[in-house]
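Q: Got a minute? One more chain.
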Amino acid sequence: MKYASLMRNAGLLMALSVALFVGCKKEKEQNGPSLTVAADLGVVTRDLTLPPGAYPLRFKLIAQKGSGKDDADLKEYTITGTNSIVNVRRPAPNGQSFTIDTTMEITGSNGESYTITFTVTDKNNNSDRKEFKITFQSSPDNPPSGQNQIDPLPSREYSNRDGKGTYLIYDHNSGSFNLTDRTGAGSNPDQILFLYYYREQNPTYHSVIAPDVLSNDGYNGTPIEWDRSWSTATSLRVPRSGVNFDNVTYDGIRDAFENGQTEDDNIGDFNRGKRIKLEGRTLIAFKQTRAGKDIYGLIKIEGLDNSSKKATLSVKVRRPN
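A: Always. Here it is, folded:
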């Protein structure tokens, strides 16, 4: 009887082992897809808090198929936003990996916020997602309206675009900004604060240029020629050490220019203070006289990339009263 009992127990153990083995065989090795935020210049990589206004925000994410042996190919991706600010569903252009690279204009008033969600799904219906919360909030240095207002344009990517640079358009009545190419600048020549240009010939360098100097005949035949008559005049200076871009006050922007230095970068400009190399700089101050008003501003050099021939700049402007 004892032998029979032992045999029954052994049989039970074997049955349990087989059951466990079968159960393990049924489990699939699936890691699921992944979404990774690209670290390119000018790409949104985190939640943002911005002053009220309109902003062209660039998002770039890389979708990858899971690395498990049972992971399926990528099926689709979606981009959705609070209050239907965006609603996109697209099939995956590649089952192994692909890049989502999109720029969307997002406008908000004080107290508004939006959450932009990117999701990638594979054919096993496994998914990964990334969310970015964009909050619009006024600050003491940027009241919703009135005097002593600072108009900020957080980090944006500047490049040669059409081969002729990126132009920063500024409306001093509304405080709105727009980055545009030569064609767009031609529609608003009297609203250009400055242009960014990357010189590709040796020696190469990143630079900021005052728009009025481009009307000089010496620029004819070059990639940065300009044949319009200008109603504005801009001067560029290097602020003294101690200017804090992030905490600068309304009058501090003016003082950064007035106490700054006009430097000669030895790059063949016709007037000193009209073109400045960005290499080795952290801040540049400028002053523009427009329609009888003085507009002061600060440019913060966030990053320079020679391989992509681009720069990331932040700007703050002291809106004239």
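A: The first strand starts at residue 34 and ends at 37.
Q: Perfect, thanks.
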